[in-house]
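Researcher: Structure for this, please.
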Amino acid sequence: MKIEFAITDEYIELIKLLKATGLCSMGSEAKQAVEEQLVKLNGETELRKRAKIRKGNIVEFQKNTIVII
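Model: Predicted structure, C-alpha cell format:
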C-alpha cells in the first residue's frame, strides 16, 4: 500500500513516522522493526531509529511504501 505523509517541520524521526502512519502501534514496536532491519529508507536498510526523514524520502515497511510530502 502506498501512503502519502505530509510533514510540516523540517523532518520527522523514523520511529515517530512509523507510529504516526499507524504501521506500528507503539514506539517499542517501531524500534524493534528498525533493529530487526525491516525498514528501508530510499531503498537502503535503515538502522537508525531516529533517522531524520525529510520531504521526498521514501520509507518501506511491511509491503507499505510511505512517500514524504
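Researcher: Any notable elements?
Model: The longest strand covers residues 64-68. Strands lie at 2-5, 12-13, 39-41, 44-45, 52-53, 58-61, 64-68.
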